[in-house]
Fold these 3 entries.
Entry 1:
Amino acid sequence: MSAATAPPRSAATGPLPLAAPLGLFFAVFVVMPLLLLAYVSLHADPTLQTPGLAQYRKFLGDGFNLAVLGNTLWLGVKVTLLTLLIGYPLAWIYTQAAPRWQAVLMLLIVLPLLTSSVVRTFAWVVILGRQGIVNTVLVGGGLVDAPLKLLYTPGAVTVALAQIELPLMVLPLITALSNIDPALRQASLALGAGRWRTFVQVTLPLSMPGLLAGCLLVFASAVSAFVTQTLVGGGQQMFMPFYMYQQAIQANDYPFAATIAMVLLVSVLAVVTAVNLLARRSRGFVHG
Amino acid sequence: MSAVPAAVPPAAVASAASAAPAPGVEVRLDAIRHRYGDAFAVEDVALRIAPGELVALLGPSGCGKTTLLRIVAGLLRQSEGTVRIGDDVVDALPPNERGAGIVFQSYALFPHMTVEANVAYGLRARGAPADEIGRTVGAMLEMVRMPAFRGRYPRELSGGQQQRVALARTLAVRPRVLLLDEPFAALDKNLRLDMQIEIRRIQRELGVTTVLVTHDQEEAMSMADRIAVMNAGRVEQFDTPEAVYDTPQTLFVATFVGTANLVEGRLAQRHDGGWALEAAAGGALALARAAPCSREGAVVLAARPEHLAIGAPGPGALPATVGMALPLGPSLVYELALDDGRPLKVTMPRTSDGVRLAAGDRVGVSLRPGSPAAVFAR
């Protein structure tokens, strides 16, 4: 990409040496561990004596494992949809707001990123617990007789994750929406389209690159959000990251844990690739 | 004006009966004011645009011309005043119900749609039947001479082509009023002239009432039936291009449209009924008439370079010294200096028998007989 625009350089002074530190970092801390993970997953026993696909056969042959995988991916989908539902209007409001309100909104939007995920998760535990804020209000207001079970439910995990991942959805959306020429919306309105039609035909398609980027980020981090899944889910439902942890640390079955990791990795990669294909089609329109 | 000229080529207009010219309607603005915060962007504007007329809103940036256009389009709601399109007061109507079609400066073509889909957009939004959409889109692309490009995306088109598509898209919904916001600003000079002619042709063919916003006086002069010269939110003069150029009503119009030499002095009536300008720089200039200001006192005179003549020093002529001569093709522009050092530009036809003046020559500058010069009270 840069080759087309950069002036010609000799090999020695080219951009390659500049990329070397990052490349090295990547090789040692990303590629190597992944290869190691793949190597471990290809062994039948924890002592890595007998190589083979036994772990994958075990994983794919058991309905429980597939249910955990399905559960995890479904969680990712639910969180993505929820952040999209909340994040799109929020991003839209941001782009339409006056500059000084934009500063306030931006602070609110990135606030979740400024605290550790452990702290945010415990906040949700406090809010949703039996003695938590929500139940106190509901019981105190006479709306329910006994505290509701909010914590340790699939709904709680989805909502908590959606709040925590929201910036990852909103920020790319803001970028995409800000890049749309306001004259396009006005042109659509002036041509006789209503607001809804204008949104569906013009704004939505042109914000697609940001929307898809946001979905990818949220999906990938939601399916691997170990802390929130575990603390808010309370071990009542099994998700892949905790399953991995359990197999590796509690059951000491590293090859199987590595297999779980590989399966999750491949599943997420498959989703990312599919979404990227979509994104490439829509990006062409925007940056022609 | 609203009737289709007989010499129209058998273009689009005829081929789609449904796209026949909407007879132009009158556009009337009454006492329009618009406030941004505390500042008035548009102040007390009243315009009456005749059916089928092309009116240019001309003025420097920030004069309120684009604000006015957006008010007519319905993209902006004026603080005070009424907008009438045809017989309807449209103040309460959103853009899509006003019948006003706008072509944006950036063209605002939908980048994710083909040329065809862009042109069809307004018709689809109105729920027109598919065969009518197909016919109208074909006719419109024919009219802007772009039928070969219907499958292309806007990014695959040149600036001029994009503008044609934007025009076709706007005209496809048969607007009662066509609004053009700086339509030629993004085009290079040669293309600009072609598109000006093209748009004028189409506008005449359709007889659609048109408002053009521009800061380019040549563009306004060459295209408009009438020009509304705007400054600081007000319309300074609303008249034909000739009248705006020859008889400016305000000092702003005199200096903004074309080149004007300004001479300060005192106006005095002579015994024979003529007028004399006693210039502050020394000397006097004889004037046949004084307009728009005809009161004795401190005034400033605005004269076009081609309305002045250079002769021998004498009574009724301003004494000046020749500075530079700039040959500009068919004419010669002399830059003179009045006795107080103020510059004066005079255009002379470049003929072989003309007098050649050299730098430092003392000359007298007078008004060409019958030439208009505008006098404004100081």
Entry 2:
Amino acid sequence: MRESRPCVQREALASVLRHLRRERFPRLQRSPWTAWDRGWTDSLHEAFRNKQKRMWERVAELLPELVSLAEIPPDGYRGFCLAITDIDLERGWAARTP
Amino acid sequence: MIWSEVGRLERREYYDSHCDEALLEAERCLRSAQDAIIALSEDQRSAIGSGLNLKIPDNPVEMMEMDWANWIPRILRTIAHFTETEPSRRGRRKVRRNLKLHPLIRDLWRIAQEHGGDFTAWPGGKGHAKGTMVEALRLLEPLLPGGFVPNVLSVTTLNRLRPDRNRAK
């Protein structure tokens, strides 16, 4: 049984999360009405974007906690975070994302 | 001994990964079909056999295998490996698996170990688990459908799902 966990290297993790946001939630980076968005109505686009934003906020809150609980070393941050978001997206766990 | 256990666990993992609600539903339907076939008379069975235009083999074992009425029990026996059901009777074995939660727990163990970390699980009294795996599941709970993570998590179950359990070191 362990009482104290090694500290998470916050800077390294923040950098990984920034990359992850760009990779996994690219639509949050783009301005509306890119070529890909054609055909979307304003409200649909906004709803989708808001949902993605809320999902990302949850993920960004959750991953540092999981990294800390699993005692992941800094060189494993990226792989761990990617794998966690992969299984999340694959199984659609975020069913209760508001 | 160790390798046979490893093989067993790998087979279990293979079966687990193919078992879902659709397979369980297929199993339920096949059991109903089996009951319906048992209720048929001999005449009806042989008439259906003729209708299927089966070539009757000389060998009695092959003949048994060719009997169309045996096909469903054979499929059921195969499905039983995946669903951990007693092939000969209804109902599942005592050890029930949560088809959605268990793969999630197994994935969490695996991902943590693959990236140089690990979760922990130890008995916290009355078989209830404590440790970082329980904390991680509680953390994920708000994102999961209601009732996905049970209130009481068993330490035996959590440790049974560890990928490195019983593996040769």
Entry 3:
Amino acid sequence: MMKSNDRQPQDCFMIADHKFGSRLFTGTGKFANSELMADALKASQSEMATMSLKRVDLHQKSDDILRPLMANAIKLLPNTSGAKNAKDAIFAAQLAREALATNWIKLEIHPDPKYLMPDPIETLMAAEALVNDGFIVLPYMHADPVLAKRLEDVGCHAVMPLGAPIGSNKGLVSQDFLKIIIEQANVPVIVDAGIGAPSHAAYAMELGADAVLVNTAMAVSPDPVAMARAFAMAVESGRMAYLAGLGQVNNHAIATSPLTSFLDGV
Amino acid sequence: MQASQKVVTINDQEQVVIEPGVSSLAELVSKFTLDNNVAVAIDSKIIPHRLWGSTLLFGDEQLTIFGAIAGG
């Protein structure tokens, strides 16, 4: 089903009060260096990129990831990675607001380091508290349609259901549930995690997702810049196909040529 | 370090001698980073940037400096 903001001029979409022209969001992790990351993000045409916060190592100079992002006017979306419960996540969000002067936050709470599955109960609790504290909250979540509605109800400005576990490159393993979330959502749906190939991103867009977030697949490619470009094209292609309208899927053949018996009796 | 001196511990890595009631948070942070995109907590309480100059240290505080890193 089409959503109300689907056919705006230039096909932009809004999250809170911010308009995005690109439907490809990017992560900044796992790139070999910040220069390569900046080049890849530029090639992706992404307008928003995620980052994390951690204790500064006083003895080691770290890459300055903010400078190239700010130079390219990319909107910063700090995450709460590392948070194991709602309390941690709220603290991380408040730190990010102070450090980066933004009230946007990608809320992610995953207590299990092996599968990095988001904790739905802690996520909902944290989301409500952060919304009440003035944050624009984009929660990373299971592809759970009920949870998506609950997060929307407490005021989240978008939802970010997973396609597959973080960094797994498995694609849209959760596609049946993503379809329900997309159908029911009144806020933008950004498919996050597991997108390992441009075709996965295109498929997410064909399903009607408002955007996708990609990190690992770009960052670990031998040519991140070319891969970023490929993702940009895939997202645009998938979006265009969604707007054009895909054909119905059938379990039987439907001929594309006439089946008249003109050779009978020859 | 003399027994009477007051120190602040930073990120569990460094101990810095301060002048109690005189040394400010802003002064201390500037010794470790010139990056403005950091957040600072004293004893797990986040101190807003605007209060760094007026926040005086008295010793024995645990100070944590957080900065942005790459992440997905």
